[in-house]
Amino acid sequence: MLNKERLKTEDLEKLNQITKIMEAAKTINIDGIITEINTEEENNYKLYLDSKSKTIYIGDTSNLTNKMLYVQKILENEEGKSGTAFVNGDISSGFKPYFREE
To answer: CA end-to-end span of the chain, whole Å?
Structure first.
């Protein structure tokens, strides 16, 4: 017997957001090192880059191109350090992305 359940609208929306994140991650060549994307908090997605020992809070999926440029700079500047990057604020309102070493 076939299971004819369809994805719920909420799941389809999360899938759409993950697709957007992965497309943006490709622009800075980190799509292959993202271990997990945590979608539990709708407007505060978390990326796990285990090989880099980093967690990245990207917030929602607005301004992903700009956020990824900050992620790229943080990864370059903090190479070899474990910690958390925060690019989840409103950059247009003066939020400055930052890295907290662990």
So the answer is: 51
